[in-house]
């Protein structure tokens, strides 16, 4: 999904996003009570944030390690330019361990974040990735420890003018 360019956030938007990020199961009524605004205001703001692509979902944040996929790695792929990105993307999307893939600039064409159950299982996943004829070369980097988890709240706070709660 491509986000809309130039979406403006205000302090209430930032506080609303932060509250739902911290407590995704909170109801609209409780959210309105905590923020001190009308329920209709909260619902309208949420709808607007979803419609503009700022909020992409309210689903659970799954930890791959907690369900047995303790190894995280990043793989860059060089692909056959003749075949293009779409067939490679379809191949990668069919592999459950591929968590995300991005086309990139530089010496490689695609960057993937993948997970595996072990280093030996990582080899299986990489073999599955490179089995597609449109992928010419893969280079893998194994993550040893996550120093900063994927996060967007500091960015939301900054976009809203830096107001709101202090970074955690």
UniProtKB/TrEMBL annotation:
One of its GO terms (molecular function) is sequence-specific DNA binding. This is Lrp/AsnC family transcriptional regulator. The keyword Cytoplasm does not apply. It comes from Micromonospora carbonacea. Keywords: DNA-binding, Transcription, Transcription regulation. InterPro entries: AsnC-type_HTH_dom (IPR000485), Dimeric_a/b-barrel (IPR011008), Tscrpt_reg_AsnC-like (IPR019888), Tscrpt_reg_AsnC/Lrp_C (IPR019887), WH-like_DNA-bd_sf (IPR036388), WH_DNA-bd_sf (IPR036390). One of its GO terms (cellular component) is cytosol. Pfam families: AsnC_trans_reg, HTH_AsnC-type.
């Amino acid at each position: 999904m491509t986000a809309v360019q130039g979406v403006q956030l205000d302090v209430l938007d930032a506080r609303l996003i932060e509250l739902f990020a911290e407590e995704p199961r909170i109801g609209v009524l409780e959210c309105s009570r905590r923020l001190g605004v009308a329920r209709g205001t909260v619902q309208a703001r949420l709808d607007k944030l979803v419609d503009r692509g700022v909020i992409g979902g309210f689903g659970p944040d799954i930890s791959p390690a907690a369900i047995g996929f303790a190894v995280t790695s990043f793989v860059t792929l060089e692909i056959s330019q003749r075949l293009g990105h779409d067939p490679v993307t379809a191949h990668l999307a069919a592999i459950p361990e591929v968590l995300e893939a991005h086309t990139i600039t530089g010496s490689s064409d695609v960057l993937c974040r993948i997970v595996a159950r072990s280093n030996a299982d990582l080899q299986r996943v990489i073999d599955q990735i490179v089995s597609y004829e449109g992928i010419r070369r893969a280079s893998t980097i194994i993550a040893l420890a996550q120093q900063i988890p994927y996060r967007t709240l500091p960015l939301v706070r900054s976009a809203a003018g830096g107001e709101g709660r202090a970074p955690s």
